[in-house]
Amino acid sequence: xxxxLQQVPLxxxxxxxxxxxxxxxxxxxxxxxxxxxxxxxxLNVAFFIIALSFWVIGxxxxxxxxxxxxxxxxxxxxxxxxxDYYLGREKxxxx
Length: 95
What we know:
- Helix content is 59%, strand content 4%.
- With 95 residues, the protein is mainly α.
- Strands 1-2 form a two-stranded antiparallel ribbon.
- The radius of gyration is 22 Å and the shape is flat.
C-alpha cells in the first residue's frame, strides 16, 4: 500500500496569483489607462501632477486590496454581473 502513496511537491508559484507591482494585472492596466487619459486632457504640468497623484493613490488602494484578497477584481466583476432580481420561470431557458 505504501508504494502507491507518493509525495508530490506543490510549488508556491502554482497557487499564488500573478501580481505586478503588488496589484492585479487588470487593475494595473485600468489605472494606467485612466492616469494617461487624465494627463492627456491638458498635457501640462498641472494635469501631470493630478495624474501622478491619481496613480499613486490608486496603487496604494490596489496593494491594500491585493493584501486582503489577491483576486479582488475577479470577485468585483462577478458581483457586478449578478442582477438584483431574477424573473421566475416555469422552464429553464435553453439557448
